[in-house]
Write a structure and sequence with these properties.
Strand content: 15-25%
Strand order of the largest sheet: 4-2-5-12-6
Helix content: 25-40%
CATH class of the largest domain: Alpha Beta
Largest sheet: 5 strands, mixed
Number of helices: 15
Number of strands: 12
Length: 340
């Protein structure tokens, strides 16, 4: 779909960067231990269970729509006012361990590292995985600035590539892409940069290429950047990206509440996948993203609450190959048994 008017990349990027920096506002209600005596079947819960939930700033639709469409209530959950936490990072893990929230949105790599380091957290439901069968526009990957001589993966040998974080999913996907295209990753210098500074760094020649995503990538392409490589769904197929996490203690003591949460999120996911306009409206109502981007440029990939074990194992192996993880770390250690 063509834009009716061009977004200014700097303004759009600043907006999303601010959104990523938002933290939960106000205190969440203190949650009492949750009873497991209720039923998890839709609309048939005998006891309403309290659950404090912190959503992220992106891939918000399954949680927002589950709330707005009454799916949490239908499953016998009282989530109160859903809070907003920063997307991913150690903060989400810490918030569930401390009991500030019962369930929080985060990213898969953060959870994997947390479990590997002994933090008592588990992944309890999915939001987004790298779907290799999705045929829509790719909204992540490696791009180069106008006038660059880099045309394909092999041209990246000996170059500087900016990534949002060393060891993060974009870094892992880029390294895998280099290897699969015959380029030694050790020949490339990876430069960690703030997400909202990647495109500008490439434009100024501080790096030769960047791996970016969403509004950052699409705005860059609209301003003349060229795609060199596709992203996570090609090189880490079915790998988990965005998900929900709880503390191990909460998961062990409150499986009924988490089962109901999983059911409600699944309903929200299905509703969103079938109602594109409702998803775009959710982004209008709950984010600071520019309206033209939401309406005309934003790529809405289908979300999926279920986990793909093979995709998890692919990501785990890449991280182990990089020396990031202990070799015996398994899918079963990371994912709550009710979500496998």
């Amino acid at each position: 779909m063509e834009l009716r008017r061009t977004l200014r990349p700097a303004a759009a990027i600043t907006t999303l960067a601010l959104m990523f920096g938002l933290t939960a506002c106000g205190g969440s209600a203190e949650s009492e231990p949750v009873s497991d005596s209720g039923s998890s079947s839709s609309g048939a819960a005998e006891e309403v269970l309290p659950l404090t939930v912190a959503r992220g700033g992106v891939n918000i639709e399954n949680a927002v729509l589950a709330d707005e469409q009454g799916f949490f209530e239908e499953e016998g959950l009282d989530i109160g006012e859903m809070q907003l936490t920063g997307m991913g990072g150690a903060a989400a893990n810490s918030s569930v361990i401390s009991g500030e929230f019962d369930v929080a949105a985060t990213d898969a790599v953060t959870v994997i590292r947390a479990v590997a380091e002994g933090m008592p957290v588990v992944a309890v439901a999915g939001t987004k995985s790298a779907d290799p069968d999705y045929e829509g526009e790719v909204s992540d990957g490696v791009v180069v600035p106008p006038g660059s001589d880099i045309k394909e993966w092999t041209d990246l040998e000996g170059k500087k590539i900016g990534v949002p974080e060393l060891g993060g999913l974009p870094h892992m996907a880029t390294m895998t892409g280099l290897i699969e295209n015959g380029v030694d990753p050790d020949s490339v210098e990876f430069v960690p940069l703030p997400t909202d500074a990647l495109v500008e760094a490439a434009a100024k020649g501080q790096v030769d290429a960047v791996f970016t995503f969403s509004i950052f990538l699409l705005s860059a392409v609209d301003s003349g950047f060229t795609r060199v490589g596709t992203g996570v769904r090609e090189y880490l197929p079915n790998a988990p990206q965005v998900l929900w996490v709880a503390s191990k203690e909460f998961a062990e003591n409150n499986p009924e509440a988490l089962e109901r949460f999983h059911n409600a999120i699944e309903k929200g996911t299905e509703y969103g996948n079938e109602n594109e306009e409702a998803v775009r409206q959710a982004y209008h109502d709950h984010t600071q993203l520019p309206a033209p981007f939401i309406d005309e440029r934003m790529v809405l990939e289908p979300l999926n609450v279920e986990f793909d074990e093979e995709g998890w194992n692919t990501l785990l192996q890449v991280m182990k190959d990089e020396g990031d993880l202990r070799e015996d770390l398994t899918y079963e250690e990371i994912v709550w048994e009710g979500a496998r």
